Amino acid sequence: MRKVSLPERPDWRAEAERLGFTFADMHGEPYWDETSAYEFTLAEVEEAIEAPATDLHALCREAVDRIIADESLMARMGLPRAHWDLIAESWRSAQPEVYGRMDLAYDGTRPAALLEYNADTPTSLYESASFQWLWLEQQIAAGVLREDDDQFNGIHEALVERWRAILPPDTDVHFAAMQDVPEDYATVEAMAWAAREGGLGAHYTDLQSIGLSDQGQFTDAEDRVIGTLFKLYPWEDLLRDPFADHLATSQVQMIEPAWKALVSNKAILPVLWQIAPGHPNLLPAFYLDDVADALTGRGAARADGFDAVADRLRAGHVVKPIFSREGASVQIIESGRPVETSPDRSYDDQPMIVQEYRPLPLMDGLRPIIGAWIVGDACVGMGVREDRSRITQDLSRFKPHYIRG
Q: Which of 16, 190, 264, 335 would be 24's cystine partner, CB 3.0–4.6 Å?
């Protein structure tokens, strides 16, 4: 893994505008940045990213099974008790999932480590699946990259096949996101594009226009009944919405299914460590309430396995809310001293977990994080984002990558 400076395509911004990639610049900063790219070997991709991410996804499913069967673990998930049965039934009835994005710390030397799993409403899909592939093709054509350079990117093709696998042909699917949020719209449009190629009907609907019929079914702005809904609306928020009371009786098929509320939840990280302590792609993780006193030396931990990794956690750990976005309310602590704190504290009221701190590599003053895309049960591609901060936040940049050797 190395970072390589490359010439930009001279007209890429005009192309982005033409293709609807309207958030290539955000907040006065570049979001898409092709002044450099990350180069990987095929062995790195296959052995250090693809295979571990696929295995971690299987481990997450094992964790869901354990959580569903244990009310004490369900209570740790921070989800309304009134909807635990809905979550459990979605798992027991094998309601199908489509996609997710694992955030991995990887420096090219140590095994990739799971930081968190955005398994419910992950964004950066369009730029990962489509725009960076276009970049590869055009840079090869321009002679900037070699003819035999490649990219770990089968995301779109895998999504097409996944839609075909989980729904009958010609099924109508509504794709919902918040109006006037370009990144969210790009995500649902990328999904709808794959669904159409998979032989399904696809309709965009504004999330806020969804209503409820007299028969208790969800409807779009044109009063069409929604039978299958792909929603870019986190389950932890939806389950606190008054509409959640109608989910069980509305007959709507939700994508992602309700059990993904457990996988996308950082409260799953301590469960993963309970299942597989010492796993090479996991970082030790515990619920803060169980280990806070032990971290500061003021008392004993109330968590099995903590003592075995206590020195590692005291040397460096991250405190994270079980629900958060863009690094909000995250704090990094080394040797008992906070060394970086997210300025956005909007999730401070959430339950917290503690995870061992794994520094991201520093490359030209920026820190890359690997987004490993899961479709179905396999890792099928990746994207790279980088940030000046140790905590990857909303000003991170998306960087293309290629495979050589």
A: 16
